[in-house]
Amino acid sequence: MKSILAFFGFLTFGLVSCFAQQNLLDKAEASKEADNYQLSLNILSKIDTNTLSIPQKARFYYLKSANYKFRKEDSDAYPLLLKARKLYTALDSLEKLATINLELFQVVRNIGGDHLNYDEYIKAYLDYHLSQNDPKNLRKAYIRIAGNFARETTVDSSFNYFKKALQLIRIDKDTLAEAHMLNNFGVLHNEFTSYKDSALYYFTTSRRLYKKSEYIQASFQNTASAYKKLGEYDKAIENYQKADSLLGKEYSKERKRFLYDLMAKTYELAEKPTKALEYYKLTQAYQDSLNLQEQEKAIFDIQTKYEVQKKENENLQLKQSRFWLISGVILLVLLLIATYLVYRTRIAKKQLEVKQSALEKNELEKQLKDQELAGLDAMIEGQEKERQRIANDLHDNLGGLLATLKLHFQNLKTKTDRLRDEQDELFKTTNSLLDETYQQVRNYAHQRNAGLKTSEGLVPSIKNFASKVSVGNNLVVQVEAHDMDERLENSVEITIFRIVQELITNVIKHAEASEIIVHLTSFEDHINIMVEDNGKGFDPSIIKDNDGMGLASIIKRVEHLGGNVDIDSHSGSGTTVILNIPKS
């Protein structure tokens, strides 16, 4: 009971700990999404990674690396990303692996150095998207890689991946995406190459494909930047003015401020100080408005933050209440399960005790039956010896005395040959009685000494016994055997012989029958014995248990051998005894 409770206690602690760690991971991710990277790292520092599951540990390393990455601490992010990559590989999370490979490429590119190579991460990232057979996601992957190569030293790679994306865009006939891609070519030329004319070409071409004014406005602004770098300030100002005309009231003040700052600097480069001052003032006016707006926003943010914090505290309390409620329910369920298991264990123990008691009882009954069987065997063996002794005594002692008596009687008759006729008749009668007595003693001795001869087998021994019995008892005993060619075990043959012998002897003693028929039939697994007589019959219900080797002993003996006995007898209609005895 204590071990079960300890197990469920440990399981409950594990579940509670798992829920707590999951809650911390959720908070850390929420802080990262809110750009509060330090808070997210602080929360992650409270987590014990030894208690995390593999999915939780993979998420932990990824969140921690993301916080370092957004803080531009790529050297700290790199080993964490490698750990997350290994765990997500074990989890077979292919989509997450693709994201991590892209971020590893970005981190390795930022770290630099000859000892790190980002090619394997780019290949793994693209292999995943190629395997998905999704052209739109594949072109996005190309664009992401191209954007990360958008540097002066790697601008050629950026062009290559943008071109691959453009091929897929044109297959899809996505005009807006094509315009964006042409604009990207213009930006690359404008920022990282000396081919400013190419930049102007791509800006103009993309502008023809744009429909929305915000995209056209940005294109004019990019065109003005290219002209400014070429030193053609008037054309630059002309394109800035076109961009300004497309900035309606719906656009933010920040975009206005940024555009007017660019125009003021361009007018200054064009040596038009009046216009430059005018646009500097506009820039400052928008900056002041933005500052005021920022102050108002800051105040609003503080109020919002307070309300949000208050709400979060309420939610946290609610979550904690739910957490403890769920934990209590789980603990209660576990206790109920433990109680049920203890109950089942006790029931099973009681059932086992009952079965054990039944087994012991059966064993005791078996021992008693074995003892009873051994007693019967001993009794039969004793009877066999007693039969042998009586038969020998009858034959050797009483038989010899009768023979001597007859011899003396013959001598007496010889000496008295001259006696009267009456005496002669008396001598004859006495001599006849002596002959008859001597013959009966011989027959009885042979009957008591009759037994199974191993060399002859069961059926010949029974027939031999039947023939001897038939001679002196005015009785016909027939033996009919069916499929009895196969010899049985010696002990089984002896048992069957003694049973048949006893049944025939009982008929001679009690039935007053003139005919007995013994049927012996062999079946696959047992021997069938049927002994019929035409005697006076009896009531089978009066069979006594203590009649020596009588019917009760025969029944008991057969039952111990695994067989059965059926007795059919009625007064005046003879008796039939049927026995079925297993062969082994």
Automatic annotation (TrEMBL):
Keyword Membrane appears in the UniProt entry: yes
Requisite cofactors: [4Fe-4S] cluster
GO molecular function terms noted in the UniProt entry: 4 iron, 4 sulfur cluster binding; ATP binding; metal ion binding; phosphorelay sensor kinase activity; protein dimerization activity
Pfam families reported for this sequence: HATPase_c, HisKA_3
Subcellular location(s) of the protein: Cytoplasm
Xref: SMART domains: HATPase_c
TPR repeat residue intervals: 217-250
GO CC terms, sorted: cytoplasm; membrane
Enzyme class, broadest EC rank: transferase
Signal sequence coordinates: 1-20
Annotated Histidine kinase domain residues: 389-584
Chain's role: Member of the two-component regulatory system NreB/NreC involved in the control of dissimilatory nitrate/nitrite reduction in response to oxygen. NreB functions as a direct oxygen sensor histidine kinase which is autophosphorylated, in the absence of oxygen, probably at the conserved histidine residue, and transfers its phosphate group probably to a conserved aspartate residue of NreC. NreB/NreC activates the expression of the nitrate (narGHJI) and nitrite (nir) reductase operons, as well as the putative nitrate transporter gene narT.
Keywords: 4Fe-4S, ATP-binding, Coiled coil, Cytoplasm, Iron, Iron-sulfur, Kinase, Membrane, Metal-binding, Nucleotide-binding, Phosphoprotein, Signal, TPR repeat, Transferase, Transmembrane, Transmembrane helix, Two-component regulatory system
Catalytic activity: ATP + protein L-histidine = ADP + protein N-phospho-L-histidine
EC nos: 2.7.13.3
Name by which UniProt lists this protein: Oxygen sensor histidine kinase NreB
Main location: cytoplasm
Organism in which the protein naturally occurs: Zunongwangia profunda (strain DSM 18752 / CCTCC AB 206139 / SM-A87)
Transmembrane segments: 323-343
Residue runs in coiled coils: 347-374
